[in-house]
Amino acid sequence: MRSILPLFEGSSWNLANAKYVYDFIATNSQTGMGMAFSPDGKIMEIMGANTITVFLNYYDLSIGFDIRTAVFNPTKSYSSGSTANYKTGFVIKPDGLRIFFTFAKTASFERIYSQDSITPFDFGTVTNILYLDLNPLIPIGNNLSFDINSLGTKLYISDITAGIIYQYTMSTSWDITSAVYDSKSLSVLGSFLVRSQISPDGKIFIVANTSAGGGSTELDQYSLSVPYDISTATYIGNYFTQYPTEVSGQSSFYINPAGNKIILANYTQITQPIYEHQM
Asked: For residue 113, what are the contacts with CB-CB under 8 A and spacing of at least 6?
């Protein structure tokens, strides 16, 4: 365990109350591009990439959302081959039977994909590959990240390059092909969005951003006067504005449904440290 100073102290879905608890080094030397948990926190999946391959690594946790208890499970981890268009983020449906992801910028399309799995949270073999085209709303060549609310009805797509988040509604929950743009968006602070997450009640929206290339990172907290509607967002404040020098440049975070734990992953270090904070 590394020695890192506590950041903040004490309550749910309030970043100002977060304090450092623990960190560990994830299995395999690769940069972290995203993370997800099962609803009970006993499964953690981390997406990463080295110079050759993209990985989705699976961990079992004996205590939910307690990364001190994480054990790498190689039989449920897999690699997806070439990093030519590597995945830059992902969301897993709560039942573990569908994964959503996007790629780094390409020269030909901007899309969110979904794939189904027969075994919950095991995406070594997938079926029913679907996608949502985002162009022309998001220009071809721009990097993307995204989030889906806990009901599977709202999709928030971040144009990383432009610093704008667009809101979509899925008329059929968790069906990416039913998503329609709500003509609602949020222009956020910072120059390089890397992750967002909305609280289960739709009243808190958290955005992580950093300078391109991995500078210091901040988590910006917004309050939504109309649940799930980011056009009603009010900026509350920014937190974690800079890690200790050896860990600046974070690419992903996950807040548990209760809002009392935040897990952060770093993408600028190939040793891929994961940090747990209590709120």
From this structure: 100, 101, 102, 129, 130, 131, 176
Helices vs strands, H then E, count in the chain = 0, 21
Q: Give the C-alpha separation, 215 to 244, whole Å.
A: 12
* 172, 132 contact by CB (below 8 A): no
Report pLDDT digits (tens) over 153-176. Answer: 999 998 877 888 999 999 999 999
Short-list 202, 270, 207, 215, CA closest to 236: 207
Mean pLDDT to the nearest integer, 182-197: 83
> Model pTM greater than 0.85?
yes
Distance between CA atoms of residues 137 and 231, nearest Å: 17
The pair of structure tokens assigned to 128 is: 């029913």
Residue 154's pLDDT is what? 98
